[in-house]
């Protein structure tokens, strides 16, 4: 049975202030913690930063709810800090990148399999194959720059294989806009799914934009630039699924409900007791935030908030490996592209996307260059043949 709102009012907003010692806590272990714990950590940081982004925009447009938004936003700023600061300090930016792509793959695959709207389920599968290829390209970059096996981060939950080639993912902006759900008819889960992916993809876009310029390797800088551009496409792709005629109050309710639903999903499945307690604490906080939003909705729109959000939340979003599902989607849909809001075979693309892509790739493709002759094989530099051979020669030279 899903979470019932009438039985869970959460923690009072005026008691949610924490100290710095409570805000900045012990980080995760890069290798000892389960990869799905890190998936939850990264996703929830994206969910929180999306809530902050929306709250700031709403603050500028709605003078009558600025006080409520400002108070909740400050609490969520500190929640986002706690979650983001769980990142292991010995986890390199490239290792974190691998983890971000694992989040995109496993979360999008879970959403695609549960989405009740066939068109939107197709849209999630479409984005899934593109993020799947990004993981492959970044794994090749990790092999090139650090000599590391990306599976040390992935822990065999996620395959390292080519997806829809990043080189052909570039589309004209018009061809990344999707048909939105209809707010009065859409399943509540449909609305939550769209916000989950908006938060996750926006976070990934911003991370790549900030991290990319810090690399000294020219190909790494180009690869981050290329994939950051695709992530912007993905934000457009997912945010256009949301009904643009929803009022500010409706969207605020949905954002708060989305946070509740995702903390609930995390708390139900977390295997690390310390992190599980954190998810439970923040679930109580978000239930309190939702109560404030529901009261504001009643006051200013004069409607029952249960017209917008479910009184009983759906079963938790599953955190699990989706390897077989991803392979089946890859086999069936790798050649798809988009023409306007429709998904079509690549041969039916609009000329505007062909021209756009040709211009971007006129001097070559970083994603193709980085993966040239790369095939993932298990192991690190200590036991892979090409590195082992070099190590033997170096050792012999040192002995002379």
Number of strand segments? 2
Helix-strand pattern: HHHHHHHHHHHEEHHH
The description of the largest β-sheet is: 2 strands, antiparallel
Instruction: Figure out the total of helices.
Output: 14
What portion of residues is helical? 55-70%
Q: Overall pLDDT, averaged?
A: 94
Strand order of the largest sheet: 1-2
- End-to-end Cα distance, whole Å, is 70 Å
Beta-strand content bin = under 5%
Instruction: Output the radius of gyration.
Output: 22 Å
* Overall morphology: globular
The secondary structure category is: mainly alpha
Low-confidence stretches: 385-400
Q: Layout of SSEs?
A:
Blueprint: H1 20-23, H2 35-61, H3 66-84, H4 93-114, H5 118-145, H6 151-154, H7 188-211, H8 218-239, H9 248-269, H10 273-301, H11 323-333, E1 336-339, E2 342-345, H12 351-360, H13 366-370, H14 385-399
Antiparallel strand pairs: 1-2
Helix pairs in contact: 2-3, 2-4, 2-7, 2-9, 4-5, 4-7, 5-8, 5-11, 7-8, 7-9, 9-10
Overview of the structural elements:
- The longest helix has 29 residues.
- A two-stranded antiparallel ribbon has the order 1-2.
- It is 60% helix and 2% strand.
- It has 14 helices and two strands.
- The radius of gyration is 22 Å and the shape is globular.
- The protein is mainly α.
- Helix 7 runs antiparallel to helix 8 and helix 7 crosses helix 9.
Briefly say what this structure is.
This protein is mainly α and 400 residues long. It is 60% helix and 2% strand.
């Amino acid at each position: 049975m899903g979470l019932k709102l009438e039985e869970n009012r959460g923690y009072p907003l005026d008691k949610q202030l924490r100290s710095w010692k409570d805000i900045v806590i012990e980080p995760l272990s890069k290798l000892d913690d389960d990869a799905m714990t890190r998936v939850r950590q990264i996703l929830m940081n994206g969910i929180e930063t999306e809530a902050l982004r929306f709250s700031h925009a709403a603050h500028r447009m709605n003078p009558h709810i600025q006080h409520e938004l400002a108070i909740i936003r400050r609490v969520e700023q500190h929640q986002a800090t706690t979650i983001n600061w769980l990142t292991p300090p010995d986890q390199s930016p490239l290792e974190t990148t691998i983890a971000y792509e694992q989040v995109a793959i496993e979360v999008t695959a879970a959403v695609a399999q549960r989405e009740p709207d066939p068109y939107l389920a197709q849209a999630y599968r479409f984005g899934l194959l593109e993020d799947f290829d990004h993981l492959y390209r970044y794994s090749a970059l990790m092999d090139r720059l650090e000599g590391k096996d990306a599976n040390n981060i992935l822990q065999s939950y996620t395959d390292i294989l080519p997806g829809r080639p990043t080189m052909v993912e570039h589309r004209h902006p018009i061809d990344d806009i999707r048909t939105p759900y209809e707010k009065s008819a859409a399943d509540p889960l449909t609305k939550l799914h769209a916000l989950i992916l908006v938060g996750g993809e926006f976070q990934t876009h911003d991370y790549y934009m900030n991290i990319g310029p810090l690399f000294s390797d020219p190909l790494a800088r180009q690869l981050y630039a290329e994939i950051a551009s695709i992530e912007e496409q993905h934000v457009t792709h997912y945010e256009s699924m949301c009904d643009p005629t929803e009022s500010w109050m409706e969207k605020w309710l949905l954002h708060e409900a989305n946070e509740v639903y995702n903390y609930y999903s995390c708390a139900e499945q977390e295997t690390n007791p310390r992190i599980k307690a954190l998810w439970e604490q923040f679930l109580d906080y978000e239930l309190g935030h939702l109560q404030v939003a529901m009261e504001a909705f009643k006051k200013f729109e004069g409607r029952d908030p249960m017209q917008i959000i479910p009184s009983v939340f759906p079963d938790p979003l599953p955190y699990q490996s989706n390897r077989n599902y991803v392979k089946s989607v890859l086999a069936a849909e790798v050649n798809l592209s988009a023409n306007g809001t429709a998904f079509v075979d690549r041969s039916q693309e609009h000329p505007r996307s062909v021209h756009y892509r040709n211009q971007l790739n006129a001097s070559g493709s970083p994603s193709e260059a980085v993966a040239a002759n790369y095939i993932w094989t298990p192991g690190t530099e200590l036991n892979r043949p090409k590195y082992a051979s070099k190590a033997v020669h170096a050792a012999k030279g040192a002995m002379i």
